[in-house]
Amino acid sequence: MNYHLRLVTVLCALSPLYAYGGGNPDSVKFPEGYDQSFAHYATINRDNQKQVAKLYANETAVSSYEEGQSADPGSVVVMEIYKPKLDAAGKPIPGSDGIFEIDTLAAIAVMEKKDSWDAAYPENERAGNWGFALYKPDGTALSNELECAQCHSPLKKQDYLFTYQNLIDYAKEH
Fold first, then answer.
1. What are phi and psi of 40, to 5 degrees?
2. 101 Cβ contact partners less than 8 Å away, ≥ 6 residues apart
3. Which one in 45, 89, 150, 164 has a CA-CA gap of 20 to 30 Å to 109?
4. Which of 21, 15, 53 is nearest to 126 (CA)?
């Protein structure tokens, strides 16, 4: 992870906290069945938050990254956020591949890209044309204390995605 991404991560962790600050579940809906119909493009450690993330993208996102450097409208990216198993010292236990061993699914984050959003979803709560929402594992909305747009906005050159290169690499291989 380069210095810029580390800085953004630290800033996000220290940013002011607001209910639903991390998205708008009224605008960004939970994509039912994503785990069956979207491409699983990466599994990564979120070291700063001691989490494991499994990342999925719909066909629109994958095919647009095959062709260019940004996602087309209609692209949806999903991140399953898992709590890792911890050792006696409270540190995540890495598997043989370096990815933390998974304990339980904690939340599901959704990013959706549109050409235009309803006026009820303010521009300052989005990153570019990407909207955000956070859900419980059962698909019901979850109040989020972090500002998703605030953390993603500095990543304009990466189409506002922390896992931009992972998705580009997956799209090129498939």
1. -85, 105
2. 84, 85, 92, 93, 94, 95
3. 89
4. 21
